[in-house]
Design brief:
With about 300 residues, the chain is of the alpha+beta class. It folds into two domains: about 140 residues; about 150 residues, Heat Shock Protein 90 (2-Layer Sandwich), CATH 3.30.565. The chain is built from six helices and seven strands; from the N terminus they run αααβαββαββαββ.
Length: about 300
């Protein structure tokens, strides 16, 4: 407007109403353009922040689910320590009754040490329970959200190992919101095992369905497979076929630990043996739905 006014003074050009309309229209158009560009920047920043939060939640979910598995083992250790303490104390009393004082004192010392192990395990378990009760993640999530987080985490893991893996998720039936950490820890460990079993290229199929009151989860891969001689021992504690370049055995969470967690929750895990499909290795988990859904 100022520019037009100055030009009018020096050029003696009349300012008409149409000139003001054109200038106003251009001003409005430029305002919308600037505001639109500004909103695009705001939306982009919001989307980046949302993506960062999603990745952070996935990392926390992976950490807490692993802690959940370890806490189950710790709880089992505390229970075993308590049973051994009782057995050692009973042995102490039996040895005392037959006047074998030295052996009795040894049994009593072992009972005391086992009792200390039990108390330490309970203290650590209590600390892990507090960590897992954080409010920054939902205790219960949709199965689609849980499987999406698992696939995302293992896709990054596979890329880190230099492998090209195709992931396929098949979910059937209507599902409730399930306990996040239980399902995530179990499925994630099977999927990560499948990633490690694939050499360079392969496929992992994750299937979730229901049968009456049981949730059925199957993880299949076309990796190196499990030899016939190893199949009877895959759920045995300490059994592993994974070794690093120096020949040191893997010390990660094995199938025996997964089996313990599943049994703690009233379920079973099975290695399916399908003669018609020798290319795929499939593990099946069956869990009662009652223990995984939110009550009320």
């Amino acid at each position: 407007m100022v520019e037009i006014s100055v030009r009018n003074i020096y050029s003696h050009t009349a300012i008409t109403f149409s000139t003001f309309v054109i200038i106003g229209g251009i001003a409005i158009f430029r305002s919308f353009f600037v505001l639109g560009f500004f909103n695009i920047l705001i939306l982009r920043e919001a989307k980046l922040a949302e993506e960062q939060q999603r990745r952070r939640n996935e990392e926390i979910l992976l950490l807490i689910s692993n802690l959940y598995v370890e806490s189950i083992q710790l709880k089992k250790t505390a229970k075993n320590a308590e049973e051994l303490t009782s057995a050692c104390y009973k042995l102490y009393r039996d040895l005392k009754n037959v006047s074998k004082n030295q052996q009795a004192d040894n049994a009593l010392r072992i009972a005391g040490e086992m009792h200390e192990i039990k108390k330490d395990s309970q203290r650590i378990y209590a600390g892990l329970s507090k960590i897992m009760n954080q409010d920054n993640l939902n205790d219960f999530m949709e199965i689609e959200e849980i499987t999406a987080a698992i696939i995302s985490a293992n896709r990054c893991y596979g890329e880190m190992l230099g492998k090209k893996i195709n992931y396929r998720v098949e979910i059937s039936e209507k599902h409730s919101r399930y306990h996040t950490f239980i399902l995530f820890s179990l499925i994630n460990n099977l999927v990560s095992n499948a990633v490690e079993a694939i050499r360079d290229n392969g496929e992992i199929i994750l299937t979730v369905n229901k049968s009456k009151e049981m949730i059925i989860i199957m993880v299949s891969d076309n990796g190196s497979g499990i030899s016939t001689k190893n199949k009877p021992y895959i759920f045995e504690p300490g059994f592993t076929t994974k070794f690093d370049n120096t020949g040191i055995a893997s010390n990660g969470i094995g199938l025996s630990h997964i089996k313990n967690v599943i049994e703690e929750n009233g379920g079973i895990i099975t290695l399916l043996d399908d003669p018609a499909n020798t290319e795929m290795t499939t593990f099946e988990i069956r869990l009662p739905e009652k223990g995984l859904i939110q009550e009320g």
